[in-house]
Automatic annotation (TrEMBL):
This is Exocyst subunit Exo70 family protein. GO terms for molecular function: phosphatidylinositol-4,5-bisphosphate binding. GO terms for biological process: exocytosis; protein transport. GO terms for cellular component: exocyst. Residues 646-656 have a biased composition (Low complexity). Belongs to the EXO70 family. Transmembrane segments: none annotated. Component of the exocyst complex. It comes from the Eukaryota. The keyword Protein transport applies. Residues 423-448, 637-665 are annotated as: Disordered. Keywords: Exocytosis, Protein transport, Transport. It comes from Musa acuminata subsp. malaccensis (Wild banana). Gene3D superfamilies: Exocyst complex component Exo70 (1.20.1280.170).
Length: 665
C-alpha cells in the first residue's frame, strides 16, 4: 500500500483537527477503570493504552502464585515479560509528560498512569524474584570456585573430555549472565535500579563471603592473635598464604568480570555493586598481614613476615587493577598499609637479629673445638634468609646499609672484601658506623645490581658479626692450638653453608675463596702449634752421630707423639671432611717423612749398642702414620701422599698459606 494511503486509515471527513495532531472519537475509549469517555484521542493515546492492556495480560500470567521461573523451560515467556515491562514504562513516560502528543483529558491520562504504575510495580516484584532465582539457581556457574569444580573430570589424561566439560560450563554461564543482564537492564531502564542493585548486592556478597570462608582462611583480631602459640599462629599464616592468591585471582577477579557483564550499561552501577560485594572481604583479607606484623616480634617470625610481604607484593598488580575506582580505595590503602607495616617489622627484626648475635654471652667451651651452636643457628637462619632476596631487596631499597657497630681493630679487614663489600682497615674514632660504598671489587654498579648488592652487604655483615663473636669465644680455650682448631671448624662450617645454599649467589665466589683460605690458615696454625713438639723431636735430616744421641732423640719423639695423640684424643680434629683430609695429609707430611729418615739412620746405630737400646724404637713410620690418621678418623690409604714427601719445612703449613703470629690477622 502506498505510504500516503496509511494516513487515510486514521482520518475521516468528520474528524476535526486539533492543532497539528489527528484524532479519533468513539465511545470505545472511556474513563479510568473502563472505556474512555468520548473525547479527543490521538493515535499515540490509543497505542499507549493498548500497550498497557497487553502488558496486563502478560503480567497476570506470571502472578505471585506462579512458582515457575520466566527463564525456565522456554525463552519466549521471559522475552514477552521483559518487553511488557518496557512498554509499561514507556506508557508511563508518555502519560506523565506534558509535551506528549495527546488529546486525552488530565483525568484520563492520570487514570492510565496509575494503572500502568500498578502493573509495573507487580512486574518489578516478579523481576526481583526472578533475579533472586537466577542468582541462586546459577550460583555454581557464577562462583568461580564452583565453576572450576564443575569443569573437573575424572580422567586427567582425557584432554578432549576436559575441553568439552569446560566449554559446557562456560556456555551455561554465558546464558545465565545474559539472563541476569536482561533483567538488570530492564529494571534499571524502568527506574527500579535501586531495587535491582539491592538484590544483586545482597545475593552476591553472601556468595563471595561464603567462598572466602570455604578457602579455610580464618581472619583473626589482635586479641585472638595474642592467645595463640606460635605453632597455631604459623598454621593460620599458611592458610592465609594459600587462600589469598585464590581469593584475589579467582573469586574477586571473577566477581569483577560478572559485575562488568551484568551491568555493562552503567559504569557507576557496576563499580558500586563490585565495591559493596567485594570491598569488605578484600580489605579484611589484606588486614591479616598487618595483624601479624603487629604481633610480638621474634627472629623466627621474620620468614613468615617475608612470606606475607612477598604474597601481598605479588598480588598488588591485581589489587590495583581490580580495585582501581574511588569506592574501593579502602582496599588499596589496606594493601599498602600491610606492606609498609610488614617492611618495617622485617627491617626491625633484622636489626634485632644482629643485636642478638652481638649480645650472646655464653662462655661455655664447645668440647674439642667443634662447631658452636651459635654458628649453626646463625648460618641456618641466613641460609633461609637467602631465599627471600627479592622481598628483602624491595624492603631495603630506600634504606642504604650502615653498620650498627665497628669491627674490632684486630679483625682482618680483608675478610670484608666481596664483589660489593669492603671496609676500612680500622674503624673511625669519631664514628660508630662503617660505610661500604667504596668497594675495590666493583665500579659503577647498575641500579639492579646495587639493589641486590645491598642485600649481599647485609648478609655479609651478619656473617662478619658472627665471626667476630666466634673470635671472642676462641679465647676461652686454654690451649692455643685448640682455639685455632675451633676457629677453623667454625669458619669452614660457615664457608660450606654458603657454598651449598643460595648465599653463594649473594656473597660470590670471591667471598667463598677468601674465607676458605682463612679457614685453612687457622687449620695450618693448629697444625703448626699442635704438632710442633713432635716435629721438633726429630733431628734435622734425621742425622745422628752417636747411639746415645739416637736413643735420646727417639725417646723424645716417642714421648712427644704420645703426648700429642693423648692431648688431642678428645678434640674434634676438623669437622669438615674435605678440610680434614687436607689437615691430615699436611700433618702426615710434616711428621712422617722426617721420622722415616730419622728411623732409617737411627736403627742401625741402636742395634749395635744392644737390644736394650734398640727397644726404644717403638714406632715404625707406618705406625706413626696410622696413629695420625687414626687421630683424624682417616684410613691408612686415604693420605698415602704424605709418605711420598721428601721432608717438611718448619716454616711451611702445608696449605700454601703463611704462618702468622696472630690468629686474627
Amino acid at each position: 500500500m502506498p505510504r500516503k494511503g496509511m494516513r487515510s486509515l486514521f482520518t475521516s471527513s468528520s474528524a476535526p483537527k486539533v492543532g497539528p495532531a489527528l484524532h479519533l472519537r468513539g465511545p470505545r475509549y472511556g474513563a479510568a477503570g473502563g472505556p474512555l469517555s468520548p473525547s479527543c484521542f490521538t493515535f499515540s493515546d490509543r497505542s499507549m493504552e493498548e500497550n498497557i492492556a497487553a502488558a496486563a495480560e502478560v503480567i497476570r500470567e506470571w502472578g505471585p502464585e506462579v512458582d515457575d521461573s520466566l527463564f525456565g523451560s522456554g525463552r519466549a515467556d521471559s522475552g514477552r515479560f521483559l518487553q511488557a515491562v518496557s512498554d509499561l514504562h514507556r506508557s508511563m513516560l508518555f502519560f506523565s509528560s506534558p509535551s506528549a502528543v495527546s488529546c486525552a483529558s488530565t483525568a484520563v491520562r492520570s487514570a492510565a498512569l496509575l494503572r500502568a504504575h500498578s502493573l509495573l510495580s507487580d512486574a518489578i516484584c516478579r523481576l526481583e524474584r526472578e533475579l533472586k532465582l537466577l542468582l541462586s539457581a546459577h550460583g555454581q556457574l557464577l562462583n568461580p570456585l564452583d565453576s572450576l569444580r564443575s569443569a573437573s573430570f575424572s580422567d586427567s589424561s582425557d584432554v578432549e573430555c576436559a575441553a568439552d566439560s569446560i566449554t559446557e560450563v562456560e556456555s551455561a554461564a554465558d546464558v545465565a549472565i545474559r539472563d541476569l543482564r536482561a533483567v538488570a537492564e530492564t529494571m534499571i531502564s524502568a527506574g527500579y535500579g535501586k531495587e535491582c542493585v539491592r538484590v544483586y548486592k545482597t545475593m552476591r556478597k553472601s556468595a563471595v563471603d561464603e567462598s572466602i570462608h570455604r578457602l579455610g582462611c580464618e581472619l583473626l583480631t589482635q586479641a585472638q592473635v595474642r592467645k595463640l602459640d606460635w605453632a597455631e599462629f604459623e598454621s593460620k599464616i599458611r592458610d592465609w598464604l594459600a587462600a589469598a592468591p585464590i581469593a584475589f585471582r579467582t573469586i574477586f577477579s571473577g566477581e569483577r568480570l560478572l559485575c562488568d557483564r551484568v551491568f555493562a550499561s552503567s559504569d557507576a552501577i557496576r563499580e558500586s555493586c563490585f565495591a559493596d560485594v567485594a570491598r569488605d572481604a578484600a580489605a579484611s583479607l589484606l588486614a591479616f598481614p598487618e595483624t601479624v606484623a603487629r604481633s610480638k616480634r621474634s627472629p623466627e617470625k621474620l620468614f613468615r613476615i617475608l612470606d606475607l610481604y612477598d604474597a601481598v607484593s605479588e598480588l598488588w598488580p591485581e589489587i590495583e587493577s581490580m580495585f582501581s575506582f574511588e569506592a574501593t580505595t579502602a582496599v588499596r590503602l589496606q594493601a599498602l598499609a600491610s606492606l609498609l607495616r610488614l617492611a618495617e617489622v622485617a627491617r626491625s627484626t633484622m636489626a634485632n637479629f644482629e643485636a642478638a648475635i652481638q649480645k650472646d654471652a655464653s662462655r661455655s667451651r664447645v668440647p674439642g673445638g667443634g662447631v658452636h651452636s651459635l654458628t649453626r643457628y646463625v648460618m641456618d637462619y641466613l641460609v633461609f634468609l637467602a631465599d627471600y632476596e627479592l622481598p628483602l631487596t624491595d624492603i631495603f631499597a630506600d634504606f642504604p646499609f650502615r653498620a650498627q657497630s665497628p669491627l674490632p681493630e684486630s679483625f682482618d679487614a680483608a675478610l670484608l672484601a666481596t664483589p660489593s663489600l669492603s671496609a676500612p682497615s680500622s674503624p673511625s674514632a669519631d664514628s660508630t658506623t662503617t660505610s661500604f660504598e667504596s668497594s675495590p671489587w666493583s665500579s659503577s654498579p647498575s641500579p639492579a645490581s646495587s639493589a641486590v648488592g645491598s642485600i649481599s652487604v647485609r648478609i655479609a655483615w651478619l656473617v662478619l658479626v658472627l665471626i667476630c663473636k666466634l673470635d671472642g669465644k676462641a679465647e676461652l680455650y686454654r690451649e692455643v692450638a685448640l682455639s685455632y682448631l675451633f676457629l677453623a671448624n667454625n669458619l669452614q662450617y660457615i664457608v660450606q653453608k654458603v657454598k651449598e645454599s643460595g648465599l653463594r649467589l649473594l656473597l660470590g665466589d670471591e667471598w667463598v675463596a677468601r674465607h676458605g683460605a682463612k679457614a685453612r690458615h687457622y687449620a695450618a696454625s693448629y697444625e703448626r702449634l699442635a704438632w710442633a713438639k713432635v716435629a721438633a723431636a726429630i733431628p734435622e735430616d734425621g742425622t745422628v752421630t752417636t747411639a746415645v744421641e739416637a736413643w735420646e732423640r727417639m725417646r723424645g719423639f716417642n714421648t712427644a707423639l704420645e703426648a700429642a695423640c693423648r692431648g688431642q684424643a678428645g678434640w674434634v680434629v676438623v669437622a669438615d671432611g674435605g678440610l680434614r683430609e687436607e689437615v691430615m695429609s699436611a700433618v702426615a707430611a710434616l711428621v712422617v717423612p722426617a721420622y722415616r729418615a730419622f728411623y732409617k739412620r737411627s736403627r742401625p746405630v741402636l742395634r749395635v749398642s744392644g737390644a736394650a737400646s734398640a727397644a726404644v724404637v717403638r714406632f715404625s713410620p707406618e705406625d706413626v702414620r696410622n696413629r695420625i690418621y687414626g687421630l683424624f678418623g682417616g684410613s691408612m690409604g686415604s693420605g698415602s701422599s704424605g709418605d711420598s714427601g721428601t721432608g717438611s719445612s718448619r716454616g711451611s703449613t702445608g696449605f700454601g698459606a703463611p704462618v702468622g703470629s696472630n690468629r686474627l690477622e
